[in-house]
Amino acid sequence: MAAKSQICSIWLGSETGILKGVGLTKKQAFNFCEMSCMSRDQEVCVMAWGDPHESEVLVGSVNGTVKTFSTDKGIFTATRECGDPSQGRFTGLAVTDSSMITCVESGLLKVWKEGSTETTEVNVGNGICRMQQNQSQRHRVATGGKENPLKVWDLERPDKPIFTAKNVAHDWLDMRVPVWVRDIGFIPDSDKIVTCTGHHQVRVYDPSSPQRRPVLEARFGEYPLTALSLPANQGTVVVGNTHGELAILDLRKGLVCGCLKGLAGAVRGLQCHPSLPLVASCGLDRFLRVHSLEDRSLQHKVYLKSRLNCVLLSSRELESSNADFSGDVEEVKAEEEEDEVWDTMETVTEKAKKRAAQKDEAPVTGVDGKKKRKLVKKSDVK
What we know:
This protein is mainly β. The protein is built from 3 helices and 30 strands. This is WD repeat-containing protein 74.
């Protein structure tokens, strides 16, 4: 298993509770789990790197456990009970120098100190959809959810949030605009924060300014946005929605720069590479896709058999030249070819069905040679 895990540069969590590793050089996909004890309550909700060297992957499951997977050894090395399933599923997972941070849907955020049973608990409000860590200031996190506005917390002083966003002004009918934060991102080398909402809005907040409302708002599509990620080059954000649409938005002008095509299901996981102009996405269509952010072309596509919830990219090169493990390559390629066949088939609409039905119908003549009004299918005429 160690030989398999060492060539994987992308990690994904599935609904079936399987941690999947993918090596893009030969499109090799591997499952890392104990198949004998798999169950629905082990569905992977969140993932994060356990250390700066990326030798450990933390996997948070629906049943409230956080497992530690060693990418060097290719096995799970530890399991920790970090939540109560009655409190909801994990919405965020992060680590600091000496602690692990978890957050669940009920709004219970916990800081687990290394080597100690003591925890720091913070109530961030109900209906949390996402908790995100600031990578430049790792003791700061942002939370948001349904009717729970964006909040920024300093875990060294967790008594109250250091920033709470204010809802936008009423719409043109003078009605309150609902709040539904789905994902959050911190803009590097800046105090600004980007959010996407369940009402297809992308908003930029600046906590350093006296204005608590968004300093920029843009819209994409007509469906709820589910995930976002910030590319290595500043000034843009990649967002995905429930209908498999990916788009690159300009954060300066609030305009759509372009769309990334090829998806066929809701986007659940989305992450840009830390240094390369690449973005990986996954979701309900069971595919991992890697797009180029320069020409928006599809670079890699791997079928992984299970519905996918989250994706985690390594900061190193995604395509390794020393990937010489002969894994389950043929099966992956076969699934890709099958998907291409389905992609080339013509979509049958309701109008096409009616036209086909009319062609199959023919008038029947009676004994006197006159046509009857009743129409039957040709196959019924003898």
